[in-house]
Design a protein that fits this description.
alpha/beta, Rossmann fold, 21% strand, ubiquinone, 9 strands, binds S-adenosylmethionine, two-stranded antiparallel ribbon, Methyltransf_12, Ubiquinone/menaquinone biosynthesis C-methylase UbiE, 8 helices, 37% helix, 7-stranded mixed sheet, SAM-dependent_MTases_sf, globular
Length: 268
């Protein structure tokens, strides 16, 4: 059954209790919920399903699922820091570490995790755990980003290209140093197959980001959230300030990171 004693908590770089966490989760929801919901609809999730939302963050996906499975279904939303997940009937919120804490076997019709496993060094073992807690034939949806999938467009001048490229490279170093794999989106489908999931169906999505878009909002928010770590990773305060100004410029346009959404099923 569900436990609450984390033996070890991974060195997750962001902090749901930090000054920038509300912005972070708002931008994530604006940016990714449309794609996440489109893919979740493909599972046929409906009244009566029992769902698990792993690392629910701000809770937008957990809330959406709770509405879909009402009135007789249920959603368990977990997080190591679950304080931002809203409460509503049919939605159970648990402080829970997906690496270490127990879960009931063969219990869930649908499990969703977005931008969680890439942060966990033991992500392959977590995938195997998720397979065992799916009911036979149940659905697993993993949504992840590959932040290194970025090609500078010629419309960006050399200074902007250099600044933005340096920021993305420093962010990649920060995440990698904490055991995250910021490229994992592109490997997730392979790892899901190797964990014994079947009918693995990946899609990949990119768009253009400009000032005022949730993607750029997230990048600016993350540059504040992780400022100390970015300084340790070689950025300077003045270059961070400059890159924020560049991203807020009305002329700024960049291809987004690649977003990977992988649907799969537990073996029957
Ligand atoms: C980048 S946020 C993504 C939040 C949400 N899934 C979304 O996409 O909007 C990662 C979330 O995973 C949670 N998390 C990190 N490590 C975790 C772990 N070991 N077990 C459960 N949740 C974890 C964090 O607290 C955070 O809320």
């Amino acid at each position: 059954m569900i436990g609450f004693n984390s033996a070890t908590t991974p060195d997750y770089v962001f902090d749901n209790n930090g000054d920038h966490s509300v912005d972070q989760h708002r931008y994530l929801a604006e940016l990714l919920d449309p794609l996440t919901f489109e893919r979740l609809r493909q599972t046929g999730v409906t009244d009566g399903w029992n769902c698990l939302e792993v690392g629910a963050g701000g809770g937008s996906v957990a809330l959406w699922l709770a509405e879909r499975v009402a009135p007789t279904g249920s959603v368990l939303a977990t997080d190591i820091k679950p304080g931002l997940i809203p409460r509503r009937p049919g939605l159970t919120v648990a402080q829970h570490d997906i690496v270490n804490d127990p879960l009931p076997e063969s219990a869930f019709d649908l499990i969703h995790a977005r931008l969680v496993l890439s942060h966990l060094p033991r992500r392959r073992q977590v995938l195997e755990r998720l397979r065992t807690v799916l009911r036979p034939g149940g659905w697993l949806q993993i949504d992840e980003i590959d932040i290194t999938h970025w090609v500078a467009p010629p419309t960006l001048g050399p200074r902007v290209r250099d600044l933005y490229g340096a920021y993305v490279a420093a962010m990649t170093r920060v995440l990698s140093a904490a055991g995250s794999d910021p490229t994992w989106g592109r490997s997730a489908a392979r790892d899901m197959k190797e964990a014994g999931l079947v009918e693995v169906d990946p899609v990949c999505w990119t768009e253009m980001w400009g000032p005022g878009s949730p993607g750029v909002g997230l990048l600016i928010s993350n540059s504040l959230h992780l400022e100390d770590r970015l300084l340790e990773a070689g950025m300077t305060r003045s270059r961070l300030r400059e890159v924020r100004e560049v991203m807020a410029d009305p002329e700024f346009r960049t291809p987004s990171f690649a977003v990977h959404s992988i649907l799969a099923r537990g073996p029957s």
